[in-house]
Amino acid sequence: MRSIVTIIFNERQSLEYVVDIDHTPEAQSMAQEWLEATWVRLECEPLRHSGKVLLLDKVLGVADSLGYATFVQHEDRAREFAEQVAIALGRPVIKIDLPGLTVGF
Questions:
Q1: What are the beta bridge partners of residue 103?
Q2: DSSP secondary-structure letter at 100?
Q3: Is the CB of residue 85 less than 8 Å from the CB of residue 35?
Q4: CB of 19 closer than 8 Å to CB of 5
Q5: Which of 15, 26, 49, 67 yields a CA-CA distance of 20 to 30 A from 76?
Q6: Could you tell me how far CA 1 lies from the centroid of its own chain?
Q7: For the sheet containing 14-20, what is the strand order?
């Protein structure tokens, strides 16, 4: 399956990645584990006052922590992020809007 992942950092900076993904339950589970491990490694903070962290919160936190400069300077890390998000969410179109704190499909 092919997926398009768009990351909006601000009104002037956005990036788009087209990735081919493995759409198996095993791959999805591994991608969710990758997001969890990366979220912890980057010391991301919960977005909700309750402290509960949902999968979409991890997507937003990791994208924000890595930042636009990392995505531009390290194509391999950017592509890995896009692939892992696409596999974890299993959607053909994913829009990560950091200013709006939303992940849309």
A1: 96
A2: T
A3: yes
A4: yes
A5: 26
A6: 17
A7: 14-20, 2-8, 93-97, 102-104
Residue for token digits 């990366």?
38
Detail the DSSP E strand segments found in 1-105. 2-8, 14-20, 93-97, 102-104
Pairing of strands 93-97, 2-8: parallel
Question: In this structure, which amino acid lies at residue 7?
Answer: I
What single-letter amino acid sits at 23?
Answer: H
Tokens of 40: 């912890």
Against a cut of 0.90, is the pTM above it?
A: yes
How does pLDDT run across 46-96, given as a tens digit for each residue? 877 777 789 999 999 999 999 999 999 999 999 999 999 999 999 999 999
In angstroms, the CA 10 to CA 17 distance is: 17
